[in-house]
Amino acid sequence: MGTRVMSDFSHDTLPRRDNRNENPQIFRKDGLDLPLIYDGPPPLINNGSPERPQQTQTDQVKKLAGLSIGFCGMFAEQLLSHPCIVLRRQCQVHHAGAWYHLTPISLIQTVINIQRSQGGLVLWKGLGSVYIVRGIGMVSETVVSEITSFPREVSRHSSLKRLGGHILLKGIVFAISTPFLAASLVETVQSEIASERPGVLDVLFEGVARIGMWGTPHAARQIPVWQLALPTVIFRLSHYIVNSIAQFTVTSAMHLEQQEMREQPGENGREPSVYETYFPDLLAAFTGGFLADMITFPMETVLHRLYVQGTRTIIDNTDTGLGVVPINTRYEGFFDCFTCIVKEDGLQGLYRGFGALLLQYAIHALILRLVKFMFEKLSQEFDLRQKQQKASSLARKSRTQDFGFGEG
């Protein structure tokens, strides 16, 4: 769920601050690639009630339940969204396709035909390579950060120098990942009818092979890695920044709204529910991911065509879902590819497969609604238990006082 109690790449977030400590702390979330930075509202403390030194059993159960629901939702979203990613990428690199598939409706018959002819798991091809590339990015970020001292996490209070170092770190990581991103793309778009199924570590071997041929690719039409590195860094950084800003905005707005609701008469002193604690991050990840994917979609289309050029890749026919189509293009670089697409197909050519993106986030939205329902039910259950515990405590206190007066 792009999303992030956890998620494709990692999010960096700023937890809520305690009023007694003005120095913000930062924790890192696993999963998406993009850091979410927010400054949540301070916790409300009941007047006259000493703060408990450690979490109660109920608090621990709430935390575990919230993390479990969030993790399961993300896992389901990642698995269900991968077929949409495969379809989107195949449409993007199918330069001679008659159908642009700008809406999900046009993809229905194509998906049915592919499933009938190739089997049920054909649209999950390349899933392993996607996670291997993410692992390469995480390891590279750790190593580069240790060597250069560039910060892996930033907050809204970070200096411009620290922010600049963080962006530079991300750029270096994206440049290192470029050959592996290209190799992973080939695995996700190539047809299983006309190609051998790749091994688990083939993405590593292909990526290293591209690095070894940095300036002289083994195929005449293949774009050298050094020409792909800069456009890849620009694209990934643009996606990263848009995603981060969107997530920060959504999370901050939701936490501010929740704080105002808890400050209303009758709500003063109420602790945040499970829904209020975890759901804002999931919704923010959904919003940030969708906006970033939509805004950077044209650049992604150009890059994907450059990645597969000269690799002798054969893809499924996205017009009908039957048969295969070879990729034969002669682009000279990023700007030449962009110009050729606009001349041949118009601006809509840059949005081939956009319907698959809409379908991906429609599935994401359904999962998000299910997770929201589970969080709300869980919050109601915990609220009911807390009310019962308070009522029981008041009853015991009342009986104790009555007993004391009786003795007097």
Automatic annotation (TrEMBL):
Location of the protein in the cell: Mitochondrion outer membrane
InterPro entries: MCP_dom_sf, MCP_transmembrane, SLC25A46
Main location: mitochondrion
Keywords associated with the record: Membrane, Mitochondrion, Mitochondrion outer membrane, Repeat, Transmembrane, Transmembrane helix, Transport
Superkingdom to which the source organism belongs: Eukaryota
Membrane topology listed for this record: Multi-pass membrane protein
Residue ranges of Solcar repeats: 276-378
Transmembrane recorded as keyword: yes
GO terms (BP aspect): mitochondrial membrane fission
Composition bias, Basic and acidic residues: 9-26
Residue ranges of the region described as Disordered: 1-26
Pfam family, one: Mito_carr
GO cellular component: mitochondrial outer membrane
Family, similarity comment: Belongs to the mitochondrial carrier (TC 2.A.29) family.
Alphabetized PANTHER family for the sequence: MITOCHONDRIAL OUTER MEMBRANE PROTEIN SLC25A46, TB1 PROTEIN-RELATED
Official protein name in the record: Solute carrier family 25 member 46
